[in-house]
């Protein structure tokens, strides 16, 4: 399968998206955390999908790791992106992978060398440990390759569900949902859904977001990037730019005065 980098597939019709998701299942999951009948909200959301992906195509963020499906690059980048700005990772991206092009190359390096490459991101010691353990996992248990396994990807220190699921989606083209603060905030605002504390740790939230993600990998990729970029650029906390939002017509959120 060939992907259209950086985002995946950004041209879609309402009928195409509607045919790849189950609107009733989405509404059933939403009913557990909303008041009123969620079905009309789901229908309204479905009809915004073409303009949502048009927005991504014209306004989404473009980073070097969005131009590859190389598992090591994707996996290591997700660790680099933890608790730091994406622009900061972009600044060191090429230099990092020139120095550590494979798990084996990083595992053979000493901690000081790794730390020097990533210290500008902050949390250098913790990040060094996570990267080293990720490389050791690949080399010692998977013959130098990154495993396409959700549990295995979370074995290294401080590598959680988000990083592991992102690796499966962006490297192995598995249509799996991601949940972070941006995505949780958009779902909460658009559908009037009451998010639990720490939504990224709740199975119910993953199950809900899963229903919004199509089985087509290139669409799963683009819709996920659309959510991530919308949350970072438009649907921000605390003051979203609602007048610029491609989901404005289907969103229930009203900014407090």
Automatic annotation (TrEMBL):
Signal peptide residue numbers: none
Family, similarity comment: Belongs to the Nth/MutY family.
A biological process from GO: mismatch repair
Cofactor(s) listed: [4Fe-4S] cluster
Official protein name in the record: A/G-specific DNA-adenine glycosylase
Assigned keywords, A-Z: DNA damage, DNA repair, Glycosidase, Hydrolase, Iron, Iron-sulfur, Metal-binding
Matches recorded under Gene3D superfamilies: Helix-hairpin-Helix base-excision DNA repair enzymes (C-terminal) (1.10.1670.10), Hypothetical protein, domain 2 (1.10.340.30)
Domain of life: Archaea
Gene Ontology molecular function, alphabetical: 8-oxo-7,8-dihydroguanine DNA N-glycosylase activity; adenine/guanine mispair binding; iron-sulfur cluster binding; metal ion binding; oxidized purine DNA binding; purine-specific mismatch base pair DNA N-glycosylase activity
Membrane-traversing stretches: none
